Each structure stands twice: as C-alpha cells, then as structure tokens.
Amino acid sequence: MKQAVIQKAADTPATGEQLAKINRFSRRELSAEEVYVFSLLLCDNEVDRDYERFPAASLEKLAALFVGKTGIFDHNPRGENQTARIFETAVETDQGRLTAAGEPYAALRAWAYMVRCDKNADLILEIDAGIKKEVSVGCAVERAECSICGADVRERPCAHEVGQEYGGALCWHELRNPTDAYEWSFVAVPAQKRAGVTKGAHTAGEDLVKSLEGGGGVTLGHAQALALAKQLRELGALAEAGRARLMEKRKEFVRLAAFALPALDAAAAESAAAGMDEGQLDAFCKGFAGKAPAFLQLGGKPEKPSDNGAFCI
User: How far apart are CA 143 and CA 125, in angstroms?
Assistant: First the structure.
C-alpha cells in the first residue's frame, strides 16, 4: 500500500476558479465560505517500499481518473465515511531530480474540498494541525511489469524477486496503464516514503470483504469487477488443486494405515482420514511410514513376482 501526504496550506477561502470546479460536483452553488480546500500529493514515480513504481505516463492517466473521487477513512466504503472530494489534479515534475529508474521525478498533486459544518470541524482542525496528514489511494492498473525482464507478473510470473538485485540492477514492478481510480482514504500509518497507492484486485477484494463484514453494500466499477472476477478464478483454481492434493493424501493415509495397523477396518481408516486436514494427515503418514514396507516408504511399487523368480524356494 502506498501513501500520499496532505500538504500544509493556509486556511484561505476558495478562489473563484476553484469554486467553479467544485460546483461541478455540487447540487447547488456553494460559496467560498461554505467549503474548505486543501491539497495533497497522491503518488509519485519513485520506487516505493513495496518495490512498485508508477511511470510518469501512469501518473498522467491517474490525474484524469482521480478527479471527482471521494475521500473516506481506512478504505471502508460505507457512505457515512465520505469526507471530501477531489476537484482538480496536476502532475508536477522536477527535472533536476532523477528516480531509481532514471526518470525525472514526478508527483501527482490533487486539490480536495469538504463542507464547513459541525461534523467536519474537528477534521479540519486536525488537518490544519498536521494530525490528519497521511492518505492512501486506491486504483487498478492493467499491467505490473518486472523491471528486469518486462514480464507482466500477474499474468506470467517470472523468477525475479522484488527488492533483489540482478547484475547490479534492482528489481521492482512497473505499474502501467491505470484503468480505474477507486477512492482515497485518511490512514494512520504510511507505508511509502512519499506517496502511494492500494492497487488492483487487492483493493476490490478487501473493500468487498470489509463491506460484507460490516453488513453494508458495495458498488464495484467495471475494472474492479474484472479484477475481482480474476481473483476469484485464481482462488478457485488453487482450491481445486488443494482438494486434489488432499484426496491423494487421504488415499496415502489409508494405504499406510493398512500396513501399520492390519487389524484396522478400511472403512474406519477412510472415515478418520475424511476428518483430518492436510497437516494432520502428513503427521500420521510419517508415523505410519516407519512400519510400512520399504517400497511404500520410498513411494514406489512392489516388484513383480517374476522379477524375483530366481530366488523362490
């Protein structure tokens, strides 16, 4: 999860230009005295603590996607957590400073507004005092490419590990072609040095789970729905592989039990195996293996009688 930072700014009324942009999202014309405006850095193009990075081109796409997105708390999508809304964004570049990728440093800045009311008074005070400072943003990207080989690690995982060096080059994931922006949240603990993001299916899945656990509802965008569907398919494939492995382990339990405990009824062994998880089955199989014939301990098959015919008496 990457993090963004609210920028320190004087509590001054919104300008006429800002009000015009804010009122695109309001149902009636708001006055400068009714709104509180502040700016924040959403994310940048430096390699973060998770060894992920937005190229400058990705920041440009995110700039358009984040206009109009709401601010909440801790990525909890409940409506009562909505506090502010982004009305303007811009990508700022420092040509004199290079990132680890050799690209001029760039950051996505946003301006947000909230309504001045009793409910928001304490939050506005905490922002001005620097207490509420860090925010985290959620988005989806089309590709996450390995910086070493260029593979899309979500579609075709490679052998390179982020944070490791290969031939003197650090490995990270390039987050390319953002397809959706979800929200931005006030959070307590920053996870990135300067700015950051909660990305892809992880966000869609976590938001859905949090909403369901809280008894609420959730609305997914098209990109979120696709990312969640992909995650569910992957989990389904993993579950099927796990079930197949568990069935083989149960068969192994029954086979080894027959040799280690000859008096044990086969049906009883099968019933016992059905109630065990993989770890328990492994423990019993290891215990039974010491009493089983050598070919079973080695995982092989008995030799054919004809193979030992010369030694028959």
Answer: 40
User: Which residues, including other chains, have CB under 8 Å from residue 206's CB and lie 6 or more apart?
Assistant: 75, 198
DSSP state of 301: -
Boundaries of every domain in the chain: 4-219, 234-300
Among candidate residues 54, 55, 56, 21, the one with its CA nearest the CA of residue 35? 21
In this structure, which amino acid lies at residue 118?
D
240 sits in which H/E element: helix 222-260
For 9-62, the pLDDT digits (tens) are 445 678 889 999 999 998 999 999 999 998 888 889 999 888 999 999 999 999
CA distances from 47 to 4, 43, 55, 60, 235 (A): 14, 11, 10, 17, 29
Give the pair of three-digit tokens for residue 59.
């920041």
Of residues 151 and 243, more confidence is placed in 151
Q: What is the DSSP letter of 51?
A: S
The end-to-end CA distance of the chain, in Å, is: 73
CA distance 209 to 136: 18
Checking if the pLDDT of 142 tops 70, the result is yes
